[in-house]
């Protein structure tokens, strides 16, 4: 067989394999999407905490307690967190507008290793608790699995600020990762919120009072 004909035959075979693989990936995506029930799933954010005044290198916890307010299982509770006006490559980073940067994403907080974690009656020390919430393909979205009716997930992200300034941290909830299962408020609206946080680079002021105790003031 002439060499050119053989080469064309190999190329055709390779393209067929690639096409077959792409088709299989599409089928997988469709199957995953098909497994997610469509509909609205009511949830309540019963508690949302994040200190609005913080200091560089001082660790803080962002905590969301989320309850299934409906009468069906929330298929897969997903929480998206992003900082600033638009999502960046990480939940606690912002996009810099400075031209010429190889990576325009700049961290404002560093997420502590092993977080987020779930607060449960069995958890006595978050430091030693196992991680919770699988990081989804979107790097600012975390998946926490199904939530039965009336039950809650109490989730903690532990972060340390590394950049001073004032920032808005947004959170948005979903009932699945593929967009078919939607988390909604009791009146049918989107479930979302935000924290406006100021991070200072000024050191705390310390003094010793008349009792010999050290007092820290802002």
Helix content: 10-25%
> Which architecture of the largest domain per CATH?
Sandwich
The CATH top-level class label of the largest domain: Mainly Beta
The average pLDDT is 82
Instruction: Report on the biggest sheet.
Output: 6 strands, mixed
Provide the CATH superfamily of the largest domain. Answer: Immunoglobulins
Shape: globular
**Beta-strand segment tally:** 16
Indicate the low-confidence ranges by residue numbers.
3-32
Strand and helix layout:
Elements: H1 3-35, E1 39-49, E2 53-55, E3 60-68, E4 78-83, E5 93-95, E6 105-107, E7 109-111, E8 117-118, E9 134-135, E10 141-143, E11 152-161, E12 165-174, E13 181-184, E14 192-200, E15 205-208, E16 214-217
Parallel strand pairs: 1-13, 2-14
Antiparallel strand pairs: 1-3, 3-11, 4-10, 4-12, 5-6, 7-11, 8-11, 9-10, 12-14, 15-16
Tell me about this structure.
By secondary structure, this protein is an alpha+beta fold. The protein has two domains: 1-35; 38-207, Immunoglobulins (Immunoglobulin-like, Sandwich). The chain is built from one helix and 16 strands. The chain has one helix at 3-35, and strands at residues 39-49, 53-55, 60-68, 78-83, 93-95, 105-107, 109-111, 117-118, 134-135, 141-143, 152-161, 165-174, 181-184, 192-200, 205-208, 214-217. Strands 1, 3, 7, 8, 11 and 13 form a six-stranded mixed sheet that branches. Strand 9 and strand 10 form a beta hairpin. The N and C termini lie far apart (83 Å). Mean pLDDT is 82; it is low at 3-32.
